[in-house]
Amino acid sequence: MRLEVIFKFLGFILLFNALFLLISFIISAFSGESSVIPLAYSMLICIIFGLFPMIFVGKVEYLSFNEGISIVVYGWLITCVIGSLPYLMWGGEFTLINSWFESVSGFTTTGSSILNDVEKLPKGLLFWRSSTHWIGGLGVIMFVLLILPTSQNPRLTLINTEMSDISRSTFQYRARKTAYVLAMIYAGLTVMETLLLTLAGMGLFDAINHSFATIATGGFSTRNLSIAAYNQLSIEVIIMLFMILSGINFGILFNTVSGKSPNIFNSRIVRAYLFILLAGIVVATTDLYLEGVYSFSQSLRAAAFQVISLGTTTGFATQATEVWPSFTQLILIFFTIQCAMVGSTSGGLKFDRIFIFFKSIVKQVKMMKHPNAVITIKVDNISLDDQRESNVMNFIVLYVITFFITTLILSVFNTDLITAFSASIATLGNVGPGFGQVSSLGNYADLPVFSKLVLTFNMLLGRLEILSIIAFLTIRRKEF
Q1: Taking the CB of residue 294, how many other CB atoms lie within 10 A of it?
Q2: Could you tell me if 197 and 207 are in contact, meaning their C-beta atoms sit under 8 angstroms apart?
Q3: CB under 8 Å to 156, separation ≥6 — which residues?
Q4: From CA 16, how far away is CA 131, in angstroms rounded?
């Protein structure tokens, strides 16, 4: 394995982060804030270490799988380290572990926070905090692919290691075209939401920050009470709409715009995903109303927002869900585990895998009745071979085992069961809020240091979808 090649690609990643640090620095400088120096130093570190390998390493014509997976994993790790520097240098609530937690949570679009008072942060740091969502939502590797001055093989290797095999099946393009498609949809949705939120009365700065968080399905807000601080239906409706769009496979969104299939109008899996969201809203609304928590209209408004927010792993909040009835909380936990579609910015198990899981059960039942039958699972007319079906089953098992082990670890540190369980699911699924101590309007500040460290590892496992980490860990060290 060629370390110099890995360093070169990590240099691209650092330079891309430096761009957003520069924007954050400019905002802070114009506002005359205390975050100017931390952002300036962080930017200079990115530029220096990013440019260094550019000078000494020539053009890369190919990448091996092991080099690709190493670039992806190390790229995410170094991005999170760099992301923590402005927080750590600024101080306040940002201790070493808190800075790391906030950075990992931002880049993995988890949206869990250790901040008790978000509104005390300078605008430059708030923008950087939201930028970590926007960078991480599409993935820093995808952004680098847009500007990568290299041949097709490295692009293809990186995109194959960054995207799941189910997600790649929707994108029938070359590597750079796939990156452009994703970026075009991503940027377009961000601009559209920013404009609509501004028209709805939200300030431009807040609108940009909340659009970054929505389209990345992250959940960082500039307000302590999240979206509840605005208490405005039009803002909630706009955010709900874009949370739903961001939870749909970007390839399908692109097909919708370009008039191809499958699109949101004829995709069976999109219809099934939207139906499940609607069913969750109806059930949660009914329970809240019958339990006398809110009036019917308030129940519908609260249930719709929270189901969509958790069902897309965004994690914004308009209500304190820890006081909701247990049945409604279980509905929310289900959506926290399932989440949205592959090919979107959502985390979690992904609806597509749940869809395939149930189709696989039906297939097994049919094969019991007709042992000689040849039955193929199809998702929007795309046939899944036995290997992909097996990969889905293995991923689901690994996912469940992972959040079970994490729950056990957190429980060792005297974390109550509901907090440990929901925090494990929320961080592995990159959702953000859970229940108990880490509820929708709460935070992760009071968890033990080791628990925070474990949960950041959970976030990375969830963002890289477990198997990539396992593949990376199984690379023989002598190859380096």
Answers
A1: 17
A2: yes
A3: 174, 175
A4: 12
> b/e per residue, 71-97, with b = 16+ CB within 10 A?
bbbbbbebbbebbbbbbbbbeebbeeb
Strand blocks (E) in 87-134 = none
Q: pLDDT tens digits, residue range 108-163?
A: 999 999 999 999 999 999 999 999 999 998 876 565 565 555 555 555 555 555 55
Per-residue pLDDT tens digits for 214-257 = 999 999 999 999 999 999 999 999 999 999 999 998 888 888 88
Q: Which residues of 140-163 are buried (b: 16+ CB within 10 A; e: fewer)?
A: bbbbbbeebebeeebbbbbbbbbb
Q: What is the dihedral of CA 439, 346, 96, 414, to 10 degrees?
A: 40
Number of Cβ within a 10 Å radius of residue 27: 21
Question: Which DSSP symbol is given to 37?
Answer: H
> pTM higher than 0.85 for the full model?
yes
- DSSP three-state, residue 382: strand
Stretches where the chain sits below pLDDT 70 are 58-61, 140-178, 476-480
Burial track 34-54 (b if 16+ CB lie within 10 A, e otherwise)? ebbebbbebbebbbebbeebe
Question: Are the beta carbons of 212 and 130 closer than 8 angstroms?
Answer: yes
DSSP 440: T
CA distances from 150 to 39, 59, 140, 246 (A): 30, 6, 17, 30
